[in-house]
Amino acid sequence: MIILAKAMLITCHLRISGRVQGVGFRFHMQKQARKLDVAGWVRNRHDGSVEAVAQRSREAVDRLIEWAQHGPPNARVTNVQVSDDSGSYTGFELRPTSNAQAAAP
Description:
The chain has helices spanning 2-7, 25-36, 58-68, and strands at 10-19, 39-44, 50-56, 76-84, 92-94. It is an alpha+beta fold and 105 residues long.
């Protein structure tokens, strides 16, 4: 049963763009993730986007992605990029801003 439960977990990486910093996006995403029992993390990036990893059932992760498409009231989301990821997470944490710089066009 434990192996079956692990097989049902999915992990997605999210990159959220728009007016998503300075509007409480990370705090509200953490609150929403905890409500959905989604594990992972969220952080700001130096390029102005927000990055997150979400892990749980497909339904729970899809619901968090759906929430990320609009975010909290003061956010203005223009794009949410979603890709597969891996790892093992417990809880949903706020991480420090990523030191990675945006890629040159």
